[in-house]
Amino acid sequence: DAGVIQSPRHEVTEMGQEVTLRCKPISGHNSLFWYRQTMMRGLELLIYFNNNVPIDDSGMPEDRFSAKMPNASFSTLKIQPSEPRDSAVYFCASSAKVDQPQHFGDGTRLSIL
Amino acid sequence: LAKTTQPISMDSYEGQEVNITCSHNNIATNDYITWYQQFPSQGPRFIIQGYKTKVTNEVASLFIPADRKSSTLSLPRVSLSDTAVYYCLVNRPGAGSYQLTFGKGTKLSVIP
Fold this sequence. Notes:
The structure holds two protein chains of two kinds. Chain A is mostly beta strands.
């Protein structure tokens, strides 16, 4: 079991640039979650998918953020244009069912200069 | 969704039992409680989950009183490697939707 795989592990870019974060969930898991973690706000749920369909995106901060899940083995979180306040660690998690324990990736540490 | 309240930090010596209490006063009938552990530079890791009374696994125990307005995570005989942030969550399943929220967590420091 490879676990949830996120890429890149670290990303440093200038404000205004487009940022794409990637996630490969555990095979067979039907639910996928995107989180953002900062010191000030802690761990926040941004959006989650069930069977590749976005169910709740109420945590997505602005229209600059978008997430897709084109198939059961891949999801992206995109920020366009990026801003310094988007700097955070972004985690992806998956679970067998939406209310089952989640398995988290190691996160992407994003720094927007 | 039920808001959770936990102590910001706790210290403990190695070998002691540690109890971390979480308050969730407005927990609903169908809500259940889940605890996660997070080490630096890693994602959270599931520890234990329960609905009422007591749940025990190889890592921890979870105590939930009858009114379910709080829960206590118990870690037996902690070691230095248990130093981490512990999060209490209230999960609310629903028809076609699912709500959960992480609190700020409790930073546990285990001292030699």
